[in-house]
Design a protein that fits this description.
Layout lengths: L1 H13 L1 E3 L1 H23 L1 H5 L10 H19 L3 H18 L1 H4 L5 H14 L8 H8 L13 E3 L1 H22 L3 H4 L20 H4 L2 H21 L3 H21 L3 H8 L8 H11 L6 E5 L4 H13 L5 E5 L3 H4 L8 H6 L2 E4 L4 E3 L1 H10 L4 H7 L4 H16 L6 H25 L2 H32 L7 H21 L9 H4 L4 E8 L5 E3 L16 H10 L6 H18 L8 E8 L10 H7 L3 E9 L2 E6 L8
Helix pairs in contact: 1-23, 2-4, 4-5, 5-7, 7-24, 8-16, 9-12, 9-23, 12-13, 13-14, 19-20, 23-24, 26-27
Length: about 625
């Protein structure tokens, strides 16, 4: 088996493909991470404070969240990409291990992102759509020393993250599904969509009432997850699998309120887009001919830097730069302008023959490049335009036709020598192709063994021994397996993906909500769980997981329930400016059904069932007293 994997890895290393898809993947994964950091910051008092706004967490946590967000911007834009990826991985591990972010507010997303962040450290994602590429180009200002960054990667850069972050996760999840009755009945996708705690605001009753379609989707998910890891790299399977995966994860985003996980999985499908599609998209989006010709002084370092920067961000190829030496023969519109004037300002000529000078030339560059057009429109605003014109004039006059001296050539040559030195150093430490193939193969086999340990431990042995009986061999191997799982879980994000299983839904027949009485004595719903039983925005993602998977479960633990009731009343009480000392919160409950067989209109039945009051929460001097009457918590 090792030799088979080794030969496949070796072939994959030798095959070079465009890095465009990898760059798009980095950008969108960075945006997923960034939105999660913004979410954490918004809910920082709920997640990190022992009692929100009363017993607060260390302010350093909020400071590190801001640092994490800044680092994620570097990762997204591809600025010092590898270092940013290492720092990002460090933040995920630290926050997951040492804060309540994972223990009470996870739902599996953190482990998925730990694994993804670990892979980002080793993937050459900086080779497309990155500021690192711009940094390389800026080192070589003279045409004689022109150097373009590498824009291709080995095909393994696409296949390895797909195999590890999608294939192994899907396979593990499919194994768990075989032990759940509602999944075996084809209702694995249908049942969560009838549970008020999980559904989005979109009414999908018409869709859920199609029994055959729901069962088809349920069985399709199981088959899809089983075959993905064995077929995703085959050309004939790639597009069908990509369309199926995108459809399923888009459905999760639209129908359920666990959108971060859905978006996190969805961005991996950028790696499945056929390479020819990226090239075709690139040709389609780029202009067939330049929309604007910009003239610059080739002897001016500042002008050359400006050209390189604009060309880097001109993804639609709307701008063409020409040296001033070509103006006489090719562009007669410039013949009436003296040499001194041309060297003093920047000139731009559009397709209609209109000539623009100075700040107007830069304004046209922004407009012609399309996506920064808003910046160009902003510059047109009176006051902003005149201020920008003044700044441009000062810079242009100071330049005064600054020409390149020997230092320019020395700098460029030194940069070139640095590049060659780095290349030699990289080749020395990376080793030969055979050595790299061996290392990647060993890493891949290790990941497969670690994931297999998790799948067998929780997906098979745990399920088979749910009655409590365990063999002697199992009693010996279980502690070893748990120790391995602890390390792989913490540092690689390898975890059981038993989502929406029977042991989660079985007996989940009651849900809880919180209301309060305003100063007029009227009962109002906290902006948390509404009258239907849905968790309203922005209480989605990890906050939904906290309430629906930890606080309220088929077998409610009083300690946990009370802890999170205090957290929610203190947090939202402060957010909507309630005086906790003078507000009475009401705990409400209603019954729902979670059957393992299909039932028509179940979503509407569950959200329209009546609520009953079962208790209240009273705050006094920073302490909450919770009273629950007329109900046995063990029966919930």
């Amino acid at each position: 088996m090792y030799q088979k994997v080794f030969s496949l890895v070796k072939i994959g290393l030798e095959k070079q493909v465009p890095a465009l898809g990898l760059g798009v993947f980095r950008i969108f994964l960075g945006l997923v991470i960034l939105q999660e950091i913004v979410f954490l910051y918004y809910f920082r008092h709920l997640i990190f404070d022992t009692i929100p706004f009363i017993d607060v967490a260390s302010p350093s946590i909020y400071f590190f969240l801001i640092l994490w967000g800044i680092n994620t911007l570097f990762l997204t834009t591809g600025y010092h990409t590898r270092l940013a990826a290492i720092v990002n991985y460090f933040f995920w591990v630290i926050f997951t291990a040492f804060t309540p972010m994972w223990r009470d507010f996870d739902g599996g997303f953190d482990q998925f992102m730990i694994g993804s962040s670990f892979l980002l450290i080793f993937l050459p994602t900086e080779r497309a759509f990155s500021l690192d590429n711009l940094r390389v180009r800026l080192k070589f200002l003279k045409s004689e020393l022109h150097h373009d960054p590498v824009s291709t990667v080995s095909v393994l850069s696409y296949y390895l993250p797909l195999a590890i972050s999608l294939g192994l996760i899907y396979f593990d999840s499919a194994v768990h599904k075989l032990f759940a009755e509602h999944w075996r009945n084809g209702l694995g996708a249908w049942l969560p969509l009838t549970m008020p705690y999980y559904i989005s605001a979109i009414d999908m009753t018409w869709f859920l009432n199609q029994e055959f379609l729901q069962k088809f989707i349920g069985y399709l998910i199981i088959v899809f997850e089983f075959i993905f890891i064995f077929t995703f790299y085959l050309r004939s399977f790639r597009v069908p699998l990509m369309i199926t995966g995108i459809s399923l994860h888009s459905g999760i985003i639209l129908s359920l309120n666990i959108y971060p996980f859905g978006f996190g999985m969805l961005v991996y499908y950028f790696l499945m887009v056929p390479f020819s599609w990226w090239q075709g998209l690139k040709k389609t989006l780029q202009f067939k001919s330049p929309q604007l010709v910009v003239f610059y002084d080739q002897q001016c370092p500042l002008c050359n830097r400006t050209r390189i920067i604009i060309e880097h961000f001109d993804i639609f190829k709307a701008i063409n730069f020409e040296g001033l030496q070509k103006r006489a023969k090719k562009y007669p519109e410039l013949n009436n302008i003296s040499e001194e004037q041309l060297l003093k300002d920047i000139y731009a000529l559009d397709q209609k023959g209109h000539l623009y000078v100075g700040i107007d030339a830069y304004l046209q560059i922004l407009l012609k490049m399309k996506y920064p057009a808003l910046a160009g429109i902003f510059i047109r605003i009176p006051g902003v335009y005149h201020f920008g014109k003044k700044i441009y004039r000062r810079i242009a006059d100071q330049r005064a036709r600054l020409t390149c001296d020997e230092s320019c050539f020395v700098s460029s040559e030194n940069s070139l020598q640095e590049a060659y030195s780095f290349k030699r150093s990289y080749e020395y430490y990376a080793g030969t192709k055979k050595q790299r193939s061996n290392r990647i193969t060993k890493f891949l086999v290790l990941i497969m063994l670690l994931q297999l340990n998790s799948t067998i431990h929780y997906g098979i042995f745990y399920r088979l021994n749910e009655d409590g009986a365990e063999s002697e061999i199992g009693q010996i191997l279980s502690p070893i397996s748990n120790a391995v799982l602890f390390l792989s879980h913490a540092f690689l994000g390898i975890t059981p993906h038993a989502l929406y299983m029977h042991d989660h839904f079985h007996g989940y027949n009651h849900i809880l909500a919180l209301t309060y009485k305003n100063s007029q004595g009227q009962e109002q719903w906290l902006p948390f769980v509404n009258e239907e039983g849905r968790l309203v925005a922005p209480n989605w993602g990890r906050v939904q997981s906290m309430w629906a998977n930890v606080a309220v479960t088929p077998h409610i633990e009083q300690r946990r329930l009370y802890k999170f009731i205090k957290k929610m009343t203190a947090f939202w009480g402060k957010k909507i400016d309630l005086d906790l000392q003078d507000t009475e919160f009401i705990i409400k409950m209603k019954r729902i059904d979670v059957p393992v067989h299909w039932e028509r209109n179940l979503r509407n039945k569950n959200i329209n069932r009546p609520w009953v009051n079962i208790g209240r929460v009273i705050w006094h001097k920073g302490l909450a007293r919770i009273e629950i009457q007329d109900i046995n918590l063990e029966s919930l």
